Each structure stands twice: as structure tokens, then as C-alpha cells.
Amino acid sequence: MSSAGSSALEAAKRKGDLLLSTAKDTVKDAPSMAKSAAENPRKATSDFLHTPAMKAALPFINGGLAGMTATTVIQPIDMIKVRLQLAGEGVKTGPKPTPISVTRDLLAQGKFTDLYTGLSAGLLRQAVYTTARLGFFDTFMKALSARANEHNTSIGFKERAGAGLAAGGLAAMVGNPADLALIRMQSDGLKPVAERANYKSVVDALSRIAKAEGITRLWAGCSPTVVRAMALNFGQLAFFSEAKNQLKDTSLAPRTQTLAASAVAGFFASFFSLPFDFVKTRLQKQSRGPGGELPYRSMAHCFGKVAREEGLLRFYRGFGTYYVRIAPHAMVTLIVADYLGFITK
């Protein structure tokens, strides 16, 4: 055998011996590592949470869990909000429903659990949308903080707003199919009994809509959904971050600061996003008439048609209900996300 071949063989043997030795050491240390984890689970958990992969994933995981918790609490209010937005479509005058009358009608037609119609779609939407939204926002803010530290500056409201807008828009595009399924499930009860789809779950809704109307129909209303999300995130995340920054030097307790900041964020999120949420609901609920035409061709067409036929104030119908839906949702989401961020940092 040549000297080159011999040296290559020796090198391979040394590598093999090293790998074998490492494997033996790992197996030998496994019981002590398991024992250490059992004796000090907090340290073992902390070590796991601080691995590079988990540090990158935690903002997304925490955001998703926070959003799903909030949706479970708020779902009945969301159901009432959707029914308010769809009431009196195309009519400027006539009876004006209230949250109480809508709730009464819903309960009269079925049972209390009807208020949770579409919960599976709501949870899927949060698992996708809020996971991405809060995860992107946290990632953007960390990048901005790192850049600010490098230049010895601080993050301003403009940077917070930009991070909120970008995070909301990106997340809304990903979560639109679940959002559409939620609207279809919540509005199904408004149709005559013979015309109802009676979706069994979000999976059933998504598969039937895609099969009957085409896969691209799952992104119906995507434009107002994205704009709504950007407006909502501008109001929610930017004002929450700014309010917390303004309150941090006050005498308020940290938990009270978080609660107050989330209440402020909820108001601005509601104010900026409601008109787009209204249009999103109308676009996602609509179906083709006998002639094959849709009532609204686009976001701009829907805005114009509603303004002409129903009046400008129709866009803010149910603001109180929307705020009661958005503010507690924002508060629960942000508080849970804040808490999860605290215990996993």
C-alpha cells in the first residue's frame, strides 16, 4: 500500500476511534444528565429554552398560544360583531340591530354554544396569524434594538409602527384562508335553512370552499384583510410598545403597566382597523348570485357601494362591540405573550 493510502487509512481510523470514544462518553453521561435534569428541572428547561433554535422559535410559539387563549375567551363577542356587520346589507334605513338584540336572536334560534360557532377556524387563524404576527414583530424589534445599540440610539415610535405594520401585513396573507373559513361559518346561520352549508369544522369549510369555488377563493378579501391587519397592528403593537415605554418610569406596578398599555392599544387598534374589518367581512361572506356575479368586485368597490347605499357611519356600526372584542383580545393576547416571554426568557 502507498504511503498516501496508509496515512489516509490511519486518519480514518483515528476519526473512527474519536467518534466511538465520544459516543461511549455520551452514553456514559446520559444517566447523570437525566439525573441532573430530574433534580433541577428548572435549569434543564432553561438550558433547553436558550438553545439557538428555541430562542428563535419562542416568540412565534408564545404569540400563537397567547392568541389562541384570547380567542377562546372572546369568540362569542366576535360572533356578535360579525352578525352586526352583516345586518341590513344594502339598506341605508330600517331596523338597527344592537349587540343585545343579536345575542337574543342567536340564542332564540339555537343554543348558547351557537355563540362559539367557528371556534375551530378562530383557533386555526390564531395559530397561524397571531403566531406569525407577534413572532415577526418580536423578531423585527430585536433586530431594531440591536441596530439601535450599535449606533448608541433608541427605538422611536416610527420604528415600532413600521415593525407593527410589516408584521401584521405578512401574517394576514398567511392567515387569510382560516379567516375566510371563520366568516363563512359565522354567517352561515343567516341563510335560509335549505341554503346553509352546515360546516362541521374549519377543515370541512376549507376543503369544501376550495372544491366548490377554487383554491384561490380562500384568499378572497385578502387586500382588506392585510390592510386591516396592518391598521390593527399599527394601533395595537406600536401603541402597546409606546405606552409601555411611556409608563415604565411611573409608580405603577409592572402588571398594571401592561394592563394599561394593552387597554390603550386596544382602543387605537379598534379605531384604525374597524372600517377594513367591515369590508373584509362583507367580501369574505359574499357568494355569487343567480347571474354568477358577486355583489362586491373589490375592496374599493365595496367601500364605495356601502358608502352610497348605507352611509359612511355604517363602517363604524358596532364600534362598541368591536372594541369589546378587540380590547380584551388585545389585552389577553399581550398579557399572556408578555408573561410567556417573561417565564421563557
UniProtKB/TrEMBL annotation:
InterPro entries: MCP, MCP_dom_sf, MCP_transmembrane, Mito_Metabolite_Transporter. It is a multi-pass membrane protein. The keyword Acetylation does not apply. One of its GO terms (biological process) is transmembrane transport. GO terms for cellular component: mitochondrial inner membrane. The chain crosses the membrane at residues 322-342. Keywords: Membrane, Mitochondrion, Mitochondrion inner membrane, Repeat, Transmembrane, Transmembrane helix, Transport. Gene3D superfamilies: Mitochondrial carrier domain (1.50.40.10). It is found in: Mitochondrion inner membrane. Solcar repeats lie at residues 54-143, 155-246, 253-343. SUPFAM superfamilies: Mitochondrial carrier (SSF103506). The keyword Cell membrane does not apply. Belongs to the mitochondrial carrier (TC 2.A.29) family. This is Mitochondrial 2-oxoglutarate/malate carrier protein-like protein. It comes from Patellaria atrata CBS 101060.
